[in-house]
Amino acid sequence: HSEARDFTKTKQPNGKIVKNGPKDESRRQKIAQQRKSLPITSVERQLVEEVRKNDTLIIVGETGSGKTTQLPQFLFNAGFCRDGKVIGITQPRRVAAVTVAKRVAEECGVELGQKVGYSIRFEDATSSSTRIKYMTDGLLLREALLDPFLSRYSVVIIDEAHERTVHTDVLLGLLKNVQKTRSQSTSQMSSLEKMKASNGTVLEKDNHAQSQSFQKSYHGTKFSPLKLIIMSASLDARGFSEYFGGARAVHIQGRPYPVDILYTHHAEPDYLEATLITVFQIHLEEGPGDILVFLTGQEEIESVERLVQERVQQLPEGSRNLLVIPMFSSLPSEQQMRAFRPAPSCSRKVILATNIAETSVTIPGIKYVIDPGLVKARSYNPITGMESLIIIPTSKAQALQRSGRAGREGPGKCFRLYPENEFSKLVDSTVPEIKRCNLSNVILQLKALGVDDIIGFDFMEKPSRMAIVKSLEQLYLLGALTDDYKLSDPVGHQMARLPLDPIYSKALILANQFNCLEEMLITVAMLSVESIFYTPREKLEEARAARKCFSSAEGDHLTLVTVYRASAEWLEKVKMANNKDKTAERSLSKWCKENFINNRSLRHARDIHSQIQGHVEQMGFRVASCGDDMLQFRRCLAAAFFLNAALRQPDGSYRALASSQVVQIHPSSVLFRTKPECIIFNELVRTNHNYIRNITRIDPLWLPELAPQYYATQN
Ligand code: ADP
Ligand code: MG
């Protein structure tokens, strides 16, 4: 009854009709109050003044102090978006860009995608009226390809700079250049204007000629200076300041509450089990307050999610009020927002998050943090040229950030699932990603932006020469670079346009020639998401049987294609019968459950598929299928992934041809038992073994035929 009243139009005392009901009104008041109490709010005027005075500013502030949500609004209100200019804020993670944009749109009382919007790879929620634009750092890099001077932006804010993602580091270098060029352009323009003013019309003609030639050199654009703001949660602003020629740094004081840190007595042999025990210990023994658990990735989060849900059912009825909420980057955005909603009264939320919850997003209500002390990180071996994901201990800085999450709204507790003496052994801070990843993507983007001298590029922290050379070599072998290391035409340019790893972009370009673009599009989309299959411990046999229906003797790539097609067929059938999108979605998740397919991952893959399809169609490619000719598809895979070929050895292990590394087929591969003589693979996972995943059987003779640039010269 009262629900219905909440949403009717109400007449306010001042006579204005507002669409929102009292519920919305009280929510708006609550938000206004929250904003007023943020530490950043008391320094609004000073901050705006600092931005006016300094072209580059570094802002350091405690997580949750209001940097990400408030500063862009301050600058908007101070007139930084005059002449239709945009304030751009970059985030290392998609989740943060989306959730923060939604929050700020709500704070401003506008519809998302209007004044406030976001743009991330494969998803754009902006319009021509967007003035405050949240985006991933990778996306701003892509925009620079089309608009090298970022002329739409009056302010660019690099947020979460302490994370030092590879994109952040490249952006910092790039923006340093853009800023220089834009301020040169303005100072020259303004001296021209001045001359014109003092000399009246006499010089006008000359002026015109001068300014014409000047403008031409900047592609005919007249620039205003670019304001650059670097925001960081960690305390060390010195590195950033030095890199930007002694740029000014300001600190925003936070008001954190004390957090009790608890350690385990001994090292935990199974940290997931230890996590579960701790969750329930808190739930049953501690006072009210939500729990935040830091895990390493989607697979781990989803398995803990299932286990918590199972064990909750075994609790006495009065204690089952525990709500599990996952939070990781590829989660569909409406599900990401669940973490921010308060738990229903008398129940407790437990949020299972990756390190996105360290600083990127602040979730209200957290009083307890569980930190197993691990993080998934990229790691690159410049000798073999192989990148892999490994699980490593966090740094001290990360551990401190994590525990800090418990003390936002009151005193809290952090449970570190390792002994106290382990803490002192942690490294102080994480090595910047640019020093531990394959650089071929970065190099391709820089080349496309006209930066040819990669070794001479002004990186804040230079990657090793060896890593640069190895990545240049890979790009050359993929045909993206010419003999003198320039971007090749058309392949290099096409590869730079696609928002994918260079090796996947090349696979699509080749598939266009091999007439199997339809299959390759599906493959690339499915390889872009984590774990399509899931295997709950208690239903091992059923899951295996279900997977068998999709298995292809050729390998995992075709298996993924089969899953995708089966799901699409199912969806078609439901839509034909029922014609309602909502029913179809629900029915697809039922289909996923029955077939032990991860519904979230599949949906994400479907999104990615439609986006890449748009890109390749724009490039003039025709999406054709090779039908039943699987040979054609496998040959195309071999031609694309020849750098990841491996040969079986007498003992059943494999030797990767490019690196001579010994690797094993991962047990999840459909080829785990068959062990063909020669294979290509897509992923190297390092645990106690070097496991390879996503594998297809090929003929070794294809390698010298399809990749002569690499295999014909060897032996
Ligand atoms: P900072 O960038 O300094 O870490 P933020 O601007 O992200 O701080 O957040 C400021 C405050 O706004 C947080 O403490 C949180 O309470 C609130 N907030 C941010 N995003 C959301 C959201 N999506 N839903 C609810 N509250 C939010
Ligand atoms: Mg922030």
UniProtKB/TrEMBL annotation:
Keywords: ATP-binding, Helicase, Hydrolase, mRNA processing, mRNA splicing, Nucleotide-binding, Spliceosome. One of its GO terms (biological process) is RNA splicing. It comes from the Eukaryota. One of its GO terms (cellular component) is nucleolus. The keyword Lipid metabolism does not apply. Gene3D superfamilies: 1.20.120.1080, P-loop containing nucleotide triphosphate hydrolases (3.40.50.300). Residues 1-36 are annotated as: Disordered. It catalyses: ATP + H2O = ADP + phosphate + H(+). GO terms for molecular function: ATP binding; double-stranded RNA binding; helicase activity; hydrolase activity; RNA helicase activity. Residues 276-450 form the Helicase C-terminal domain. Its EC number is 3.6.4.13. Transmembrane segments: none annotated. Residues 48-253 form the Helicase ATP-binding domain. CDD domains: DEXHc_DHX33 (cd17978), SF2_C_RHA (cd18791). InterPro entries: AAA+_ATPase (IPR003593), DEAD-box_helicase_OB_fold (IPR011709), DEAD/DEAH_box_helicase_dom (IPR011545), DNA/RNA_helicase_DEAH_CS (IPR002464), HA2_WH (IPR048333), Helicase-assoc_dom (IPR007502), Helicase_ATP-bd (IPR014001), Helicase_C-like (IPR001650). This is RNA helicase. The gene is LOC104599437.
